[in-house]
Amino acid sequence: MKILIVVLFLLTLSNAALAQRSECFPFERLPPDSRAKANDLLLKALDSEALYTIVGGIKPMSSGFANFQVDVRPPKDEKKAEERQRTLAELDQTREILANFRCGEKVFADVQNFARSFDGKRFSEAVVFNRPSLASILRTKSAFFERWAITPRSHPLQVLYAVEYDQTGARFGGYGYLFGYPDHAVRFFVQAAAEEESTGKFVERDFYAISTFSSPTNRFVYAVPKGHLETAVDRELKDKALRIFEEYKAKRAKHIGDGKKGVVELLREWLCDERGECGSSPE
Fold first, then answer.
1. How high is the mean pLDDT of the chain?
2. What is the DSSP secondary-structure string of 62-125?
3. Rg value, the chain, Cα
4. What span, in angstroms and rounded, lies between the C-alpha atoms of 114 and 96?
5. Is-contact 2 264, C-beta < 8 A?
6. Are 127 and 62 in contact (CB under 8 A)?
7. Which long-range contacts (CB under 8 A, 24 or more apart) does 148-156 make?
8. How confident is residue 216, by pLDDT bands cut at 50, 70 and 90?
9. pTM
């Protein structure tokens, strides 16, 4: 009897993580003036490295597929003040859209505001998480993330802002893990930042790139020491990404273009099974 209860409980949890087809990126619920923008933003995300977060979970987090900057102080110039209000309104609309970047409980998206301002500007960007992938890296690297009282159950934004507001070299390590970089790249990322801070000199580096639809070289990319030779870990990561990328290109050609079904149906056909349950695959 106890075993049956446990099984039923696990099935309930599993089903709670799923969504019906209409609840997988439910852009139909958005106001009409937001739907076209939502489709454009989702396609831009999938054309970038966010593909490897939304679909494969290779990257626990991806960002930068929408960017904003706002004057920290209210501008005295009327035109600049109006521009500031337009940007803030656009931020609100983007947050509303990103709230519908979901398919079951796997995907979470929002806008990140960066801690530091530059030249009187506050910078923000869209960010998307794969929750199971995030929980996995928080478990695997628990000794690293526990300094911020972060656990696998922590909310994605709690994790992100713990990293963003850290003023030590751990910030670089945290971002490296969230972006899905391998250990050797995270170590170099942290060490290079520390060396630059102490010497004031830029540390020479090479870059290891994994292709995206929008760019073969400068989207999913991480720094490595000068002269770095590809490792088995690098190759395994690239091979996993390539399988997803090749499938995406085929599905994109089928769904994107005049008279075709569009980006939401692309994802629903990819992430939903024959019963119309979505969000459990693929990994």
1. 91
2. EEEEEEEEEESSPPSSHHHHHHHHHHHHHHHHHHHHHTT--STTSEEEEEEEEEEEETTEEEEE
3. 20
4. 19
5. no
6. yes
7. 156/61, 156/108, 156/110, 156/129, 156/131
8. confident
9. 0.90
